[in-house]
Amino acid sequence: MSKPVPRSELRGMSKKERREFLREVNRIQREKAARQRRRRRIAGWTALGVGVAAAGVGVGFAVHAEIDRAHLGPANLASDGLLLQGGGDGTSIVATTSEAREIDAEPVASTVDRSTGFLDLALYVDYADPDAATLWATDGATIVSALQAGTLSLELHPIAPGADEYSYAAHAAAAVACVANTEPDAALYLHDALLNAVTSGEQPAISDLRGLAEDAGVTDEDALDCIDDGDERDWVSVATARAAAGTASGQSVDATTLFVAGTPYTDALDDVDAFTAFLSARAAELAPAATEDAGADASAGADDTATDG
């Protein structure tokens, strides 16, 4: 739209002169407006180009980040297992954290000082395996109590031997990995819930895993979405293969297996007395001197009591 010409500029002009003057003013204003429109279009396309380029860079970074993430396994599973230990207050259990690593990176075995009789347990668990459910139903309370007391550690290795990526076993193991990744202190609760579900004889549907995790106390939305999508199934497949190759344990594991300070537990799965006896025997083997000293102290105490009497 042309700007109005001030009347003062038209004074003294004839009608013809005013008409020609206004025509020239309008022409100049039209050309100016056209130049402004061209500049705006150029600026707009430039901005759009920058925006598209920036978006392209952003998308590129996002794509590369997603590709990189796709090659990473879950955090806190450097050994292919989640290491749990007592929190030091007699009641809490805490997870040992670690950075996410390349999915095909060699696992880093956890280290522990066994010289005092401290027991490190490593449980390779197939969450669709009734034997795993029996073992946990029988001995889980003993393990948790000892964890809280700080007398042993437990490393959970979710595996799915003989299962494809669409199976319940793969999804359940992946669910534990999802929780270990972003809410590791809640992983034991999900582990317990998964095995309790198998014990009840009603294996959950894959679509029920999120609800099962929520009921177990998992609150992290990323973990829950990960469970829904089965995001860690690739890692489960690779970790299961490494377990079978004995990469971390030094022994081939192709089914639910519990190692107590490196020795597999092979006694009856439904006999808690056999299990506690095995724990005691392994502790004595690892620290015979400490056990003998404790026995000598107890004997001396008994002798003193008898003498005083």
Walk me through the structure:
This protein has 309 residues and is an alpha+beta fold. It folds into two domains: 21-70; 82-289, Glutaredoxin (3-Layer(aba) Sandwich), CATH 3.40.30.10. It has nine helices and six strands. Strands 2-1-4-3-5-6 form a six-stranded mixed sheet. Helix 2 links the parallel strand 3 and strand 4 (152-159). It is elongated.
Characteristic terms for this protein:
55% helix, Glutaredoxin, alpha+beta, 309 residues, six-stranded mixed β-sheet
CATH superfamily of the largest domain: Glutaredoxin
What Rg is obtained from the alpha carbons, in whole angstroms?
35 Å
| Share in helix | 55-70%
CATH topology of the largest domain, by name, is Glutaredoxin
Q: Sheet bearing the most strands, described?
A: 6 strands, mixed
What's the number of domains? 2
Spans of at least 5 consecutive residues whose pLDDT stays below 50 are: 52-68
Q: Report the sheet-strand fraction.
A: 5-15%
Class by helix and strand content?
alpha+beta
> What is the CATH C-level name of the largest domain?
Alpha Beta
Overall 3D shape: elongated
Average pLDDT, rounded to a whole number, is 83
Euclidean distance between termini CA atoms: 118 Å
Number of helical elements = 9
Following the backbone from N to C, one meets helices and strands in this order, namely HEEEHEHHHHHEEHH
